[in-house]
Amino acid sequence: MSRIKTTFSQKNKVLISYICAGYPDIDTTLSLMNILANNGTDIIELGVPFSDPMADGPIIQRATQCAVENGVTLNDVLAIVAKFRQNNSHTPVVLMGYLNPILRMGYEKFAQTASKSGVDGVLTVDCPAEYIDSLAIFLKQYKISPIFMIAPTTETERIQNIANKADGFIYCVSLKGVTGSIHLDTNEVAKRISLLRQYTKLPIAVGFGIKTAEDAQRIASVADGIVVGSSFVQLIEQSSENILDAVADFSGRLKNAIKL
Known about the structure:
This protein has helices at residues 3-10, 26-37, 58-69, 74-85, 99-105, 107-117, 133-141, 156-165, 186-196, 213-220, 230-238, 243-257, and strands at residues 14-20, 43-47, 93-97, 121-124, 145-146, 148-150, 170-173, 204-207, 225-228. It has 260 residues and is α/β, with parallel strands linked by helices. It has a single domain (3-257), classed as Alpha-Beta Barrel (TIM Barrel), CATH 3.20.20.70. Strands 5-4-3-2-1-9-8-7-6 form a 9-stranded parallel β-sheet. The longest helix has 15 residues, at 243-257. It is globular, with a radius of gyration of 17 Å. The two termini are 25 Å apart. The mean pLDDT is 94.
């Protein structure tokens, strides 16, 4: 059983925490991954820096731009995961990013290197399920889960197609807009999850717009997991001297909030 499947099978509610690789720097990224894993985070979503992060709001845009300016590449991200695996063999790591860096590396080389580094899943925001097959062949060959977002506007036919190709979990986007948006409606999320459960047996994690422990608790009452990103990145941005302590505290508070 994969680390992702094991995590969802063993945890009542799963906390997925996003940070951007290389922000504020590579060494701190590794420390943050260890801190998250030791303070309530069940799955780490590691952002791959890219020059045009179209699905991300201004907070994550600033972080990824900083990482790009620092020269952080996909190879660097995979090296960070490999170092993380030296001391942690159980916490799943999902890469979240865009297709161009993977395309440039080459699909098979990427999948092979990612697997060797210890990556468990890949979410490519700008590669829809209809065009994933040439990459997914290699992801599945190397036992890496292709993970997809399903938006509030996704129609039933596409939901079925995505569900047939997805593995690990379904990422349910809670609202229209980019990461860090604020209009979170739990009732609408619950309706959306109910619809998705008609087409998939995979766990459903909800992201976008979850900012506080209270948000996390509300969404966890209807979902299998929650994804928190912008709030972590903003915390890192604002806590230059006590980044690790601040992230550890926030991750712990989120985890406690979703223990239903």
